[in-house]
Specification:
- The complex is a heterotrimer of chains A (336), B (125) and C (364).
- Chain A is mostly helical and 336 residues long.
- Chain A has helices at 2-6, 21-57, 73-83, 94-114, 129-150, 154-185, 190-195, 201-204, 206-219, 231-234, 244-269, 281-302, 308-335.
- With 125 residues, chain B is an alpha/beta fold.
- Chain B has a single domain (2-124), classed as NADH:ubiquinone oxidoreductase Nqo5 subunit (Beta Polymerase, domain 2, 2-Layer Sandwich).
- Chain B is built from 3 helices and 6 strands; from the N terminus they run E-H-E-E-E-E-H-E-H.
- Chain B has a 4-stranded mixed β-sheet. In chain B, strands 5-6 form a two-stranded parallel sheet.
- The longest helix of chain B is centred in the middle third of the chain and has 12 residues, at 73-84.
- A 3-stranded antiparallel β-sheet of chain C has the order 1-2-3. Chain C has a 3-stranded antiparallel β-sheet with strand order 6-7-8.
- Chain C has one domain (41-318): Cytochrome-c3 Hydrogenase, chain B, CATH 1.10.645.
- Chain C has helices spanning 44-48, 57-61, 68-83, 89-117, 123-143, 165-188, 191-197, 205-211, 216-220, 227-230, 251-275, 328-334, 336-340, 347-355, 359-363; strands at residues 3-8, 20-26, 29-36, 152-153, 156-157, 297-304, 307-315, 320-326.
- The longest helix of chain C is centred in the first third of the chain and has 29 residues, at 89-117.
- Chain C is 48% helix and 13% strand.
- Chain C is globular.
- Chain C is of the alpha+beta class.
- Classes of the chains: A mainly alpha (336), B alpha/beta (125), C alpha+beta (364).
- Chains in contact: A-C, B-C.
- Chain B binds chain C through residues 21-25, 27, 29-30, 38, 40, 44, 47, 49, 51, 70-72, 74-75, 83, 95-101, 107-108, 112, 114, and chain C through 20, 36-39, 41, 43, 45-46, 209-213, 223-225, 230-231, 299, 308, 310, 312, 314, 321-322, 324, 326, 330-331, 334-335, 338, 363.
Chain lengths: 336, 125, 364
């Protein structure tokens, strides 16, 4: 049944051609619901698993009380956060403060909705789909910047500065790696990138894969690049003044971005939904994203945070040259 | 070694030249009729301690600063000023050692009656 | 560029208690750090003047709540010196063992919080906390308490050690030794950790002396002073104790001195357990009336885990006339402005972590 549900053909760009308005409407709603369910469940499970796995790494048990193995702990936390009062500090720019976090989440979810999840499950199949995705992703640090400065807190201000730093040093390698992926796939269509991966791009361009993985860690604030939220220095960085419901949004955003990053890595480098046909393609994509996310969590449990200037140096001295080398090698070996 | 407060800086600099270059502590004792300020300096290489005792009258309680010779005297002198009401002359006025203390009555003097003091403080607020 | 003033604390994730640091930064570089102490001031010195001699150890213990027994012992030693009481032979060994166990427990916690401060997600902290718990189990066996012991009595201890204590302690020490080596490997092979440690927060030996810093911070700057060696007490001189000294004076040196000290403590504990004589280690039972002091003023130096503490006691019959405590944490904190100048803002917390300050002891 699931197979049927997921193979609804939605691959026609729904705002360009419309066989019938009703079909279009149902398709959009169905697509949004399905993808929302996928990423909510994924995010929820990752949130629980993150607590459990990190607890295991630290000789702890993690949540145990709410539900079996504490599976509903995050739900309880969410209810707690939503039932608390939200405080907007007086010195804050009220509009920006109230808007930036929801906007960040909205943009992240928008990118999530733009991604393909299996041959049939996709909102649009534009030729430059990947470019749109990364254009919007590049907006996220800017919004973090406004979110940081809007609260008027100095710790948030420092965090905002650091978000520009990350923008400066990690967007470029990301785009260079994307360019080499585009070279390999002969275009920026995400569908054709996946279907072109008879051998995973992670194996064909390992340097690019590693660079992209690190850049994604930095992009989505995962340790050891969590400079913006560095809790031992900046209290909570740009989230210092963010209180209850907004903080719930921030946590939600965290997992939305984690999902986005894992799915992007899976699509661009690990063959997306390709896998043995015993299970639906969506399953393989989610499984790959899941494995990447677990790896990201284990990095969080063990890594030491890098200092801001080191992050910048690492980006410019290692990632950008490596990404360039990767681009040149890709061109010479696979295209030229 | 009992010395006069006029000789203090000389003695400290002489001892520092002689190898006593580590200030362990500055403290004071209130003997009601006089206050005794104690300077513990140490020669680390020879592991010898020297104690300089300066006696001052409670009505005329001041000592010269020794921060020119020992940077670590900073906090001790602030403590001295706040806890014993001993003015330290010759240094920049320092913040109080504790944050919320008005410094009106030096608490480590024997004349300090703390129950009564706290009660009046509460009533005033 | 303009200088920004940032207020770190009193409520901040990595302030080791309640401390307020007013930090002036120029871009990311620290221009000035001004520590504000006093949030934990309890007036212990004044309080001591109103209590009988053996009512005071519970107060002094709470000065340094990470290594309470060390402070307990420093105070009791001062009282013993004032009253001319000789500690019995076995109690000397027992105190040596327990103090070194306390030092290990304290340094383990220090390592954990240091890793937290430079941005580790509590993992090393939880590991060291678990190992510290194992050491605390030993202390519990010996004293009946895990946190505040009050087990020092004039001339000896409150209770005998349990019969199987030596064996347990020996096994635990083997385990701790292994773990400490593991921690060293884990953090020193980590480039990110070493980048935050090497060459950061350098304190030269001249500055260290001038600022009067104490304990591991002093020894990390190449000044060879350890009260256990230079004014030996108990059994330290018997076990050929040598202070651990590093020359570089940076964060790494301060961290490394503590690691080396833990290994040295393990060695001392093992040796003391082996050489422990037969007999009783009990001291005088606690009574409200204690013997009259024979010395009016005494000053006793003790090397606590965080540095040298000097107890200056002016003794009256039954009550101290004045108890003055030289706190090692206070001098170390006072030095932070000098150490952190020119460092990056993020490194301030690494420096704070390597100074390993307990605010209860700073404020007294």
């Amino acid at each position: 049944m699931l197979q049927d549900l997921l193979s609804v053909n939605l691959s026609i760009p729904f705002w360009l051609s419309s066989p019938s308005p009703l079909y279009e409407f149902i398709a959009i709603v169905l697509y949004v619901i399905i993808v929302s369910i996928i990423f909510s469940v994924f995010g929820y499970v990752m949130g629980w698993l993150e607590r459990k796995l990190i607890a295991r790494a630290q000789y702890r048990h993690g949540p145990t009380y709410v539900g079996m193995w504490g599976i509903f702990q995050n739900m309880a936390d969410l209810i707690k956060l939503l039932s608390k009062r939200d405080v907007i500090p007086q010195r804050a720019d009220r509009v920006l403060f109230a808007v930036s976090l929801p906007l960040l989440l909205a943009l992240s979810i928008f990118v999530i909705l733009l991604l393909p999840y299996s041959p049939g499950l996709q909102a649009t199949s534009l030729g430059f789909g990947m470019l749109i995705v990364f254009t919007i992703i590049a907006f996220l640090p800017l919004l973090l910047f406004t979110a940081g400065f809007s609260s008027g807190n100095k710790f948030s201000g420092i965090s905002a500065q650091r978000s520009v730093l990350i923008l400066l040093s990690y967007e470029i390698p990301t785009l260079l790696v994307i360019a080499s992926v585009g070279l390999m796939a002969n275009g920026y269509n995400l569908q054709s990138i996946v279907s072109g991966q008879h051998i995973y791009y992670a194996l064909l361009m390992p340097i690019g894969f590693i660079v992209f993985f690190i850049a994604m860690l930095a992009e989505f604030e995962r340790p050891p690049f969590d400079l913006r939220e560095a809790d031992s220095e900046l209290i909570a960085g740009w989230l210092t003044d963010v209180s209850a419901p907004y903080y719930a949004l921030a946590l939600f955003l965290d997992y939305a971005r984690m999902f986005l990053g894992s799915v992007l890595i899976a699509i661009l480098f690990l063959g997306g939904w390709s896998g043995p046909a015993i299970l639906p393609p969506l399953f393989w994509l989610i499984l790959k994203a899941f494995i990447i996310a677990i790896f990201v969590i284990m990095v969080r449990a063990t890594a030491f945070r890098m200092r801001a200037d080191r992050v910048l140096r690492f980006g410019w001295a290692w990632l950008i040259p490596l990404a360039l080398i990767n681009l040149v090698i890709t061109y010479l070996v696979f295209v030229g | 070694m009992k010395i006069d407060r006029g000789q203090l800086t000389n003695q400290v600099s002489r001892l520092k030249a002689a190898g006593f270059d580590y200030l362990v502590k500055i403290t004071a004792v209130d003997y009601v009729d006089h206050l005794e300020v104690l300077y513990f300096v140490r020669d680390i290489a020879a592991s010898k301690d020297e104690i300089l005792e300066v006696t001052v009258a409670p009505s005329d309680a001041w000592v010269p600063t020794i921060m020119d010779f020992h940077l670590s005297a900073d906090w001790y002198e602030r403590e001295l000023a706040e806890m014993f009401g001993i003015t330290v002359k010759g240094r920049a006025t320092a913040r109080l050692f504790l944050e919320k203390w008005d410094g009106a009555d030096p608490p480590l003097r024997k004349s300090f009656v703390w129950d009564a003091q706290y009660r009046t403080r509460d009533v005033k607020k | 560029m303009s200088v920004t003033r940032i207020n770190v604390g009193p409520i901040h994730p990595s302030t080791h208690g309640v401390i307020r640091l007013v930090v002036d930064v120029d871009g990311d570089t620290i221009v000035n750090v001004e520590p504000h102490a006093g949030f934990l001031h309890r007036g212990v010195e004044k309080l001591a003047e109103t209590r009988m001699y053996m009512q005071i150890p519970p107060y002094t213990e709470k000065l340094d709540y990470v290594a309470p027994m060390s402070y307990d012992e420093a105070y009791v030693a001062a009282v013993e010196a004032a009253m001319g009481i000789e500690v019995n032979e076995k109690a000397k060994y027992v105190r040596t063992v327990l103090l070194e166990l306390q030092r290990i427990a304290s340094h383990l916690l220090g390592l954990g919080t240091l890793c937290n401060d430079i941005g580790q997600m509590f993992t090393v902290f939880m590991w060291t906390f678990k190992d510290r718990d194992i050491v605390l189990d030993l202390l519990q066996e010996a004293t009946g308490s895990r946190m505040f012991y009050v087990n020092m009595r004039l001339g000896g201890m409150h209770a005998e050690l349990p019969p199987d204590f030596a064996e347990h302690a020996y096994n635990t020490m083997n385990y701790i030794e292994k773990r400490v080596s593991q921690y060293e490997t884990y953090v020193e092979k980590n480039t990110a950790f070493m980048e935050r440690m090497r060459g950061i927060g350098v304190l030269s030996s001249e500055d260290a002396k001038a600022l009067g810093v104490a304990g591991p911070v002093l020894r990390a700057s190449g000044v060879n002073y350890d009260a256990r060696k230079h004014s030996p007490y108990y059994m330290y001189d018997k076990f050929h104790f040598n202070p651990k000294v590093m020359l570089t004076g940076d964060n790494f040196a301060r961290y490394k001195v503590r690691m080396l000290e833990m290994k040295e403590s393990v060695r001392i504990v093992k040796a003391a357990l082996k050489a422990m004589p037969e007999g009783s280690c009990l001291g005088m039972p606690v009574k409200l009336r204690s013997p009259n002091p024979v010395n009016r003023t005494v000053s006793v130096s003790r090397e606590l885990p965080r540095g040298e503490c000097m107890m200056y006691l002016v003794a009256d019959p039954q009550k101290p006339y004045r108890l003055s405590i030289r706190s090692p944490n206070m001098v170390n904190l006072a030095a932070i402005g000098h150490i952190a100048k020119g460092a990056r803002f993020a490194d301030l917390f690494g420096i704070l972590g390597t100074l390993d300050i307990i605010m209860g002891c700073v404020d007294r």
